[in-house]
Design a protein that fits this description.
Chain lengths: 350, 131
């Protein structure tokens, strides 16, 4: 049995009587009060998530930009200093090694926030391919990351509204944090990165402003309503970016690992497509359930906002249009679902 | 809101965290506070059909929370006389009131001698203390 890692906020979670579970090698809070109230808090007001288990990789040096352009699928020329971009680390087959956000500090310095479970893989992948003139460094242990999400998140933190996918430094109760207008819930808000030793004070400052602590359970239901893929479930090194519907994050006009394979898949059309669906019958779809006619569910849960089963899965491209009906094998029982447009849930603008 | 932890006297308990309230040759079945707490907020109850035969120690239904699905194990054998439609329509009643409004099925016992194999409240609490 491998020893589980703890974030700098572990003691805070225990003090809040969180239910702690192993996740990607970490002891993480899955819920405090409950998944549903936490989910609703983020949709209607604000919630705070400890996501310090995620990895932070620095890529620095004069060739940092050129190196990452050759490794990552999206086009870093589209962003400037103080901006960020969703992008993919792809293999030769166009498979997804990890999905991540690249923050441009300067052309000579990028920060990559990678999935907790892929931290070592992503680091090793980049390190082995490192170009002369740049250095990849795993700084994950030096930082804590707290996502504050919801329509009132920025207001509660006293932070000005800003364009999505921008970042800058700010002080919160005297604690210096990098404020990133990014998230994984489909709501406005930010992710606050600070020095690991400042994390408890930052967390306390966030909660003192009336933000509800939320666990990984709500993080999963929120991201699924928003149709954000989860690496390891919906996207893997064996699934390509085009089939996964992530072609928008692939700059196929530039050269990067897997670009040729992805161009070929795009030209020929993928066999399967990753699509969102909503159950038409009372049943909750789960990862791995077969879909009649080929394909399978890659993520499934109960939508706290819609109060029905929702999910994502791969279906044959020919029958992947929104509105199509599918049948899912729910532990031996056929249950009908309907393919829908992304996102599954969108908050009405008020 | 979830109910505070409790294990009423007078119920019969099964080691798979189910309870039975026996009344003559009938029993009402449900899951214990421990079971609902371990699952979290319930969002789906897959109930058996009225008239179905259920067998002691075998699954007769499923309860699901946002995160997990669990079989419901029959503490006793019998025929399903009634399903709690309220628990089907709004499964959170099982969290709110696991021994009252959150019951799952009412059955007619096919073998009342099975009662001897069930736990009383003290034996069930002792079992929980070991978990």
């Amino acid at each position: 049995m491998q020893t589980l890692l703890r974030t700098p906020l572990y003691e805070r979670h225990v003090a809040l009587a969180a239910r702690i579970v192993p996740f990607a090698g970490w002891e993480m809070p899955v819920q405090y009060e409950g998944v549903i109230p936490e989910h609703r808090a983020v949709r209607t007001d604000s919630g705070a998530f400890d996501v310090s288990h995620m990895g932070e990789l620095h890529v620095e040096g004069p060739s940092a930009h050129a190196f990452l352009q050759s490794m990552l699928s999206n086009d870093l020329d589209r962003i400037g200093d103080g901006e960020a971009q969703y992008t993919l680390l792809t293999n030769e087959h166009g498979g997804i090694v990890d999905d991540l956000i690249a923050y441009r500090i300067t052309p000579f310095h990028y920060l990559l926030v990678v999935n907790a479970g892929n931290r070592e893989t992503a680091y090793a992948w980049l390190k082995q391919r490192e170009l002369r003139g740049c250095e990849v460094r795993d700084a994950s242990d030096e930082y804590a990351l707290v996502a504050v999400q919801g329509p009132r998140a920025l207001e509660r933190l006293g932070l000005p509204a800003a364009r999505p996918f921008t970042h800058g430094l700010a002080l919160l109760d005297g604690i210096e944090a990098m404020v990133c207008r990014t998230g994984y819930t489909g709501e406005a808000g930010c992710e606050l990165m600070c020095a690991a030793e400042d994390a408890p004070a930052l967390w306390d400052a966030v909660l003192a402003r009336g933000v509800k602590p939320c666990g990984l359970g709500a993080r999963d239901t929120l991201r699924l309503e928003a149709c954000y893929p989860l690496h390891g479930n919906d996207i893997t090194p064996e699934t390509d970016a085009i089939s996964a519907g992530l072609g928008w994050a692939c700059a196929l006009e530039k050269e990067f690992t897997g670009a040729a394979a992805l161009r070929r898949i795009k030209e020929q059309g993928p066999t399967l497509r990753l699509v969102p669906f909503v159950m038409e019958e009372k049943a909750i779809p789960r990862h791995g359930m077969p879909i009649e006619g080929g394909g399978e569910v890659t993520s499934g849960t109960h939508s706290p906002m819609l109060d029905v089963g929702i999910g994502m899965g791969y279906v044959p491209a020919g029958s992947s249009a929104p509105g199509s009906e599918i049948t899912i094998d729910v532990r031996g029982k056929p249950r009908r679902a309907r393919l829908v447009e992304k996102p599954i849930y969108r908050r009405r603008k008020t | 809101m979830a109910a505070p932890e409790s294990y009423p006297e007078g119920l019969k308990y099964h080691a798979e965290h189910d309870w039975a309230r026996v009344d003559g040759d009938e029993a009402v079945l449900g899951i214990t506070w421990f079971a609902q707490d371990a699952l979290g907020e319930l969002v789906h109850y897959e109930a058996p059909a009225v008239g179905a035969t259920i067998a002691k120690d075998a699954p007769y239904g499923e309860v699901e929370s946002v995160k997990a699905v669990s079989d419901v194990i029959a503490p006793l054998s019998g025929e399903v006389l009634e399903v709690n439609q309220k628990a089907v329509d709004a499964p959170e009643v099982v969290n709110d009131d696991p021994y009252g409004g959150g019951w799952l099925v009412r059955i007619r016992l096919s073998d009342p001698s099975e009662l001897d194999a069930l736990l009383d409240v003290d034996a069930y609490k002792a079992l929980l203390a070991e978990e």
